[in-house]
Amino acid sequence: MKPTNYEAWKRCITVRGGISLTLDYIEKRISELNDRNNEETKKFIKTWGEPHLQQIIKWFEQAKKEIKS
Q: Which of 40, 37, 68, 69 is nearest to 26 (CA)?
C-alpha cells in the first residue's frame, strides 16, 4: 500500500516499520534517495515511480524540519 499523505507515510515508517525517525536516519535516507546510482533508489523508482520518489523525499524533508523545530 502506497501512503498518500504525510501522516500515513510517517505511520508506515514508525508504527508498521518500527523505525525511529531520527535526524541521522532522515539525512541518510534523503542522501540515498537523491543518489540515482544507489541500487535501493533504482529499485524504488522501478517499483513506485519517479513522482512517488519525489514525494517521499519531500516527506523526509518535512520530518527533518519537525525534528529541528
A: 68
